[in-house]
């Protein structure tokens, strides 16, 4: 297990001394995407972005392979474990385990609308059971000393009145939850796929803004449809933090602007190649332990998004025949090809 000493220090927020500013910018938990390989890549691009695991069912942690579900590189800190579950005793047990593994936060999923999740009585359907959510939060807080947070929607199906999410947040906050990540869309439990639930229900950012006005003592983080650093800065005028999802995955280079634009640190100039070179030790260590290169490569396909040579980069690092038994040399070859194409393009532009 990672040593608890690896946890990131909790910096004080002058506007609210009970809230850490680290969650000003977060990457959303995304099933099959935000595994430890992507998170390590994201940390190379931004030192301050708060990272989340994929949602992990409490049963998988209690009865399954903890190493598989909970392992992370200490460099990933600050990092949160997102739990799927509704039984307070199980949530408490998992929160304690998360603390022992060195996570900085445990987050309860009350936002996933998939029918598979509903069948397990957790996810977005829990918004209809605020007492159960509050019991789970209290149990987790009693079991561990790390932050316990909740990620939720603003409504369920045709329940669209602001009072619904206001009352939900108010009730759960009484159980000791101080941080709420608000996906500013309703969850449609029947008739829409999880993908459609991310696009079709209209965004209502004003609901998240109003939550911050109604509960100024709470940390309110906004999620849903945010794709740029500029938009993030606008939202941060109204809430405490922003959470990006798929844009941070498909176009990861935007993360290189986060530390300076969101956290006010000095901008570190580096190239995409330099970022990959910095990851080489991590990647080669994984390869030497038996991890296939494809496990890492699939998460870096967007590195050259919008840049000349991006198609060649994606093609080489997603080609099953090339990836079979491949090592770092394949990444090196792809980097060389992309840079060669960029140099050729610059020559043509200057002639």
TrEMBL record:
Family the entry assigns: Belongs to the Dus family. DusA subfamily. Belongs to the dus family.
Gene designation per UniProt: dusA
Segments for region (Disordered): 1-20
Name of the protein in its database record: tRNA-dihydrouridine(20/20a) synthase
Source species: Deefgea tanakiae
Reactions catalysed, as given in the entry: 5,6-dihydrouridine(20) in tRNA + NADP(+) = uridine(20) in tRNA + NADPH + H(+); 5,6-dihydrouridine(20a) in tRNA + NAD(+) = uridine(20a) in tRNA + NADH + H(+); 5,6-dihydrouridine(20) in tRNA + NAD(+) = uridine(20) in tRNA + NADH + H(+); 5,6-dihydrouridine(20a) in tRNA + NADP(+) = uridine(20a) in tRNA + NADPH + H(+)
One Pfam match: Dus
PANTHER family: FMN-LINKED OXIDOREDUCTASES SUPERFAMILY PROTEIN
Signal sequence annotation: none
GO MF annotation list: tRNA-dihydrouridine20 synthase activity
Binding site for FMN: 29-31, 82, 151, 183, 223-225, 245-246
Enzyme Commission number(s) of this protein: 1.3.1.91
Keyword rRNA processing tagged: no
Keywords noted in UniProt: Flavoprotein, FMN, NADP, Oxidoreductase, RNA-binding, tRNA processing, tRNA-binding
Active-site residue numbers: 112 (proton donor)
Biological role: Catalyzes the synthesis of 5,6-dihydrouridine (D), a modified base found in the D-loop of most tRNAs, via the reduction of the C5-C6 double bond in target uridines. Specifically modifies U20 and U20a in tRNAs.
Site (Interacts with tRNA): 109, 195, 198, 311, 314
Stretches assigned to the DUS-like FMN-binding domain: 27-327
Co-factor requirement: FMN
HAMAP family per the UniProt record, alphabetical: DusA_subfam
